[in-house]
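Dear Dr. V.,

Thank you for agreeing to look over these. As mentioned in my earlier message, I'm a first-year student in the group and I'm still getting used to reading structure tokens, so any feedback on how I've presented them would be very welcome. I ran two proteins. I've put each sequence directly above its structure. The first is here:
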Amino acid sequence: MKNTLARGLTNLLPMVLSIWLFWSLFISLDGLGQLLLNSLGAPFMFVGAGFILVAVIVFIAGLLFSVSPIVWVYGWLERQLMKFPLFKSVYGSIRDIAGLMNRDGKPKTQKTVLVKQASGGYVVGFIMSDNTPQPLTDALPEGDWVPVLFQLSYQVAGITTLVKRDELINVDWSFEDAMRFNLTAGISTAKGNDVAKQKETSR
């Protein structure tokens, strides 16, 4: 009984939460779009019309940001607002997250590596960038240093450590799979192996 409930919860919970999250996002954006339509005097049309309007506005904004004068004006406005410390902290964090989401056309520098510890064990890490900030490069001893992220289990947060490139062991493992391994402390990989074994047994 207990195992059956746990199995049902394990399989249903991720699907239900994912659908709820995307549905909540859809409703929020649709409500924002409907508010814009109402402010323009347009009558209520159908559920989803506001979401379509928001999507169109975002698409048009993307087109406009390909025009140099608009990019320059927006950059100037951004620099003026960044002079306010509180705005700089909040806006900077959101902008960095948005930048991580938009990786199209940019080389993916994230690589999975192993870093040897003093105890002889190894820790899974990620090279997030091939470039180290110049102030850090000037302060560090001579060598090819790269920032390596060590993800904490069950947390989005992690620890960034500077490690010499020749002390890293490259791993032929996708960033997404390795990140999932770290976030779940290896549980997701163990679960995947169990499913694979069950499929082999059933053949």
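The second protein is here, in the same arrangement:
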Amino acid sequence: MIKIKDLFFAPFITEAQLLSRVNELGAEINEDYRGKSPVLVAVLNGSFMFMSDICKAIDLPIGITFVKIASYSGTQSTGKVRSLLGLECDLSGKDVIIIEDIVDTGKSMAYLLDLLERENPRSVEIASLLLKPTALQENLRIRYLGFEIPDLFVVGYGLDYSGQGRNLRALYQKTEIQSFNHKKN
């Protein structure tokens, strides 16, 4: 168990499980894009650890760029997406892979897909570490998916709670347990 600010979190997905799955996704991308040079578009801030590890698992020439959009406040999606940092490269005619930490409602991803389509890429695929299928409100096709998870709040491996917990090497789920001290009678 760990505590971040006022909340407690229990282990959920280990570092070894994360890295194993990321390497599998990298191998799929290597196979699918053999002979091509895809551009990876990482969605900041949450995808930075996933982006770093998946780049190491890809043995193709790749381009890398970053965008920043926001829709969360505390532990809940607001349903409203704001663009905070835009693309810094030309995607016209290129194969693009969006690197995302988590897709829950899908509203942020739908917003980003709309923005990217205006850049006239040859193709756009989504690589998401996590998906909450029961929270999904948009019709999205996630080509490279790490894990489907229940509709719960997680931190670690890039994901945060109020700016903290991103540096944890594993994923942790929010729990209702309020104390580390368990007294025995």
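From my reading of the second output: Residues 94 and 121 are 5 Å apart (CA to CA). The chain has one domain: 2-29+42-72+79-173. Does that match how you would interpret it?

Kind regards,
E.
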